[in-house]
Amino acid sequence: MIQRIQSVYLALAAALLGFQYLYSSVYPWASTDAYAWLSPTVLALFTLAGIGALGTIFLYKDRKRQRSLVVILQILTLVGLIILIVANYTAGTLPGISMSDAAFSHWAALVSPIMAYLMFLMARRGIDKDISLIRSMDRLR
Predict the structure, then answer these.
(1) Residue 59 carries which DSSP code?
(2) Domain boundaries, the chain
(3) Which of 55, 62, 53, 70 is nearest to 130 (CA)?
(4) Is the CB of residue 14 less than 8 Å from the CB of residue 50?
(5) Which of 18, 65, 104, 125 has its CA 20 to 30 A from that of 98?
(6) DSSP H helical segments within the chain, as ranges?
(7) How many CA atoms does the CB half-sphere of 64 hold within 13 Å?
(8) What is the pLDDT of residues 34-59, one digit of tens each?
(9) Rounded CA gap, 117 and 16, in Å?
(10) How far apart are CA 86 and CA 77, in angstroms?
(11) What is the pTM of this model?
(12) Handedness of CA 73, 74, 80, 83 (dihedral sign)
């Protein structure tokens, strides 16, 4: 389970999506005043993707199912990230480049899903490598 690198990537993605609860206090931006559904929807999508990532770690024996679930988790993360960015853009509350504590927490809330998506991408690449390795070993038999 842990000897495969994609398990580490999936655990890192789950941790990055779990960080959204640390930054859930930054969701009361002006965008949540305009869009009351923003905070619960985004947190639900990221929570579902994080729990799915932890569950997908244990599907290491069924690589094809694991790969398809990772693709679904990528889509969930991407949808949550798009909703978060578009809602903040339309409300005019995307954080500017400054070094204040509030701007850091806003940027951290936006960057952690991007990093989680990249971890899902790397996990999918690792699963694809395992699938191709198994296929090549089957051809040698």
Answers:
(1) T
(2) 5-140
(3) 62
(4) yes
(5) 18
(6) 5-18, 30-34, 38-57, 63-91, 101-140
(7) 2
(8) 667 777 888 889 999 999 999 999 98
(9) 9
(10) 14
(11) 0.82
(12) negative
